[in-house]
Amino acid sequence: MYESANVSDDADRTAFRRAEKKYKLYYEQDSKFSRKKKLPKPIDLSELLDFNLILQNFNEKGLLPDGIRVSKIDSSRVFCLENRPGFYFIPGALSLEEQCKWIKESLTNFPQPPNRTNHNAIYGPITDLFDSAKENKVLVQDDLTNNKWNFCEEDIAKAKHRSCKSVSASLLLRKLRWSTLGLQFDWSKRNYDVSLPHNNIPDALCQLAKTHAAIAMPVGEEFRPEAAIVNYFGLGDTLGGHLDDMEADWSKPIVSMSLGCKAIFLLGGKSKEDLPHAMYLRSGDVVLMAGEARECYHGVPRIFTDEENAEIGALESELSHGSGHFIAEYIKTSRININIRQVF
Ligand SMILES: O=C(O)CCC(=O)C(=O)O
Ligand SMILES: [Fe+2]
User: Fold this and answer.
1) Which ranges constitute the DSSP H helices of the chain?
2) What ipTM was assigned to the predicted interfaces of this complex?
3) Can you tell me which residues bind Fe cation (predicted)?
4) Mean of pLDDT over the chain
5) In ligand 1, which atom is closest to the CA atom of 339?
């Protein structure tokens, strides 16, 4: 899965790689070394599919761009691409309230053991990362021989653990890149390890995934959410072109929810030589990939964290009213993606 996200093998050679480079965040050469604020290089956004605009044009004028089809499921419009069967885009599928709920869960509960995160490999299982970051705590290595790490107050950490390795919880939260729910994915073996301890995916998330997955399910079958990967993106983070091919039955969709800052999503073809479609993903959008679309390379070359482009004004104010300032501050410069899978 993510090993193929290492795209150094094909340098500039493929259409997919060229699109990634086109949209990735680069800084203006001379701003890097000057004392002025680093300036992002401008990019050409004219070829991006914007499903918000497409939806608006369809609602107001009944117009659709070539190659795009639309259907209505309950109260939502679902868009499809004629040359990518099995791909579905549901703009604004999640209400503001739902977005807030899943952002909060992604930061507080989803990274809790037995769920694993990218930090496991270095620190072992760590609990209460979010609360510890909020309380300015520090993770210190209490037991060198057993590589045991625990959070403690900043001043205690300074006094007691002068000789120990330590890292601030807020840095660890900033560097959180993924957590896994349900059946745990073993990145080193590139497979699901059913022997690892795990909790089921929370019921409310299962229900949400089932509802959206229904659009892409074979007739008469119900989606079984068995595993999920939560991706966390900060400024400059990307997800390289890859396939999700570790699930047994590709006729079942991957249900992918976007939260927080706006992103660019690339949907390529079965070969990296195929020219990818580039599209915006906004907070609340849901994408499904099923059937043939499961064989299509895809990735996220860019997230927008600046106020003008992130498009999270409403989300931010909703969050700062409900869940508190800390989550709103985090999401201002972050994107979270929850993608839910049926493994067997
Ligand atoms: O972040 C996204 O929108 C896509 C995530 C993805 O493709 C994955 O986790 O496999
Ligand atoms: Fe993926």
Assistant:
1) 15-23, 29-33, 51-61, 96-108, 120-123, 129-134, 154-160, 169-174, 203-213, 307-310, 313-322, 325-332
2) 0.99
3) 242, 244, 298
4) 93
5) 9
